[in-house]
Amino acid sequence: MEIALLGGTGDIGEGLALRWARDTDHTVVVGSRDSEKATHRADDYRTLLDERGVEHDVIGVDNETATERADVVVLSVPPEYAVSTVETVSNGLTSDDVLVSPAVSMDRDGAGFHATPPEDGSVAQAVAGAAPDVPVVGAFQNLAAGALSDLDTELRTDTVVTGDDPEATALVRSLAEEIDGLRALDGGPLAVTALVESVTPLLINLAMNNEGMHDLGVRFQ
Ligand SMILES: NC(=O)c1ccc[n+]([C@@H]2O[C@H](COP(=O)([O-])OP(=O)(O)OC[C@H]3O[C@@H](n4cnc5c(N)ncnc54)[C@H](OP(=O)(O)O)[C@@H]3O)[C@@H](O)[C@H]2O)c1
């Protein structure tokens, strides 16, 4: 399977790319608006994996090519650009693809971080509105990029997966669970994704307010 990370040059993209490349046999396609940047970042990821003696399959291409190639497309871009990125790559999307939204819209004031969901209810629902023919799944919103990117960190974390297409949701849950230490829970339909997205500002506030806590995740038990 080919997994594309649009904006895979950034923080969460790096973490997911390294984990999927290390823990699975899937082809990881690092996407960028700039194909040269994608190539360089893919080189960086391959070097890190080579240093660990890990076999991997990582390539870097522009976002449009990444979308055309891949079966699963993760929108690892800032939330305010999730919809415009979908519009940019829409020619390469088919109803057989799965779009994954890890995005969290949030703002910070004197009290800390707050969720600032778009009018659609959640970023994932806004993405679904921009790609009505493609199954959209919410996942990975509560993972800390720092923990994912540090391959010495042993994960013991959950990700809540939401979506309206049972096959697409099951596929993303299984891809998530192929990452060592990550458990994927069925969170219900896309309509409740705001609940999941709103946990991330809570995690960041907890990390800021409590000494020694950083890169927090959630484990439900
Ligand atoms: N960071 C985390 O710990 C974390 C955790 C969970 C979820 N998330 C979510 O994951 C998404 C990405 O977060 P991040 O921290 O990885 O973001 P980031 O590092 O700030 O950006 C990711 C990539 O987005 C691309 N990008 C920047 N501006 C863009 C624009 N105007 N249009 C299209 N693409 C643009 C850039 O790639 P190119 O320049 O190569 O195109 C950049 O490398 C966000 O929605 C965030 O809410 C992040």
Automatic annotation (TrEMBL):
<dbReference type="GO" id="GO:0052851">
    <property type="term" value="F:ferric-chelate reductase (NADPH) activity"/>
</dbReference>
<dbReference type="GO" id="GO:0015677">
    <property type="term" value="P:copper ion import"/>
</dbReference>
<dbReference type="GO" id="GO:0006740">
    <property type="term" value="P:NADPH regeneration"/>
</dbReference>
<protein>
    <submittedName>
        <fullName>NADPH-dependent F420 reductase</fullName>
    </submittedName>
</protein>
<dbReference type="GO" id="GO:0016651">
    <property type="term" value="F:oxidoreductase activity, acting on NAD(P)H"/>
</dbReference>
<dbReference type="GO" id="GO:0008823">
    <property type="term" value="F:cupric reductase (NADH) activity"/>
</dbReference>
<dbReference type="GO" id="GO:0070967">
    <property type="term" value="F:coenzyme F420 binding"/>
</dbReference>
<dbReference type="GO" id="GO:0050661">
    <property type="term" value="F:NADP binding"/>
</dbReference>
<dbReference type="InterPro" id="IPR051267">
    <property type="entry name" value="STEAP_metalloreductase"/>
</dbReference>
<dbReference type="InterPro" id="IPR036291">
    <property type="entry name" value="NAD(P)-bd_dom_sf"/>
</dbReference>
<dbReference type="Pfam" id="PF03807">
    <property type="entry name" value="F420_oxidored"/>
</dbReference>
<keyword id="KW-0560">Oxidoreductase</keyword>
<feature type="domain" description="Pyrroline-5-carboxylate reductase catalytic N-terminal">
    <location>
        <begin position="3"/>
        <end position="104"/>
    </location>
</feature>
<keyword id="KW-0614">Plasmid</keyword>
<dbReference type="InterPro" id="IPR010185">
    <property type="entry name" value="NpdG"/>
</dbReference>
<dbReference type="InterPro" id="IPR028939">
    <property type="entry name" value="P5C_Rdtase_cat_N"/>
</dbReference>
<dbReference type="GO" id="GO:0005886">
    <property type="term" value="C:plasma membrane"/>
</dbReference>
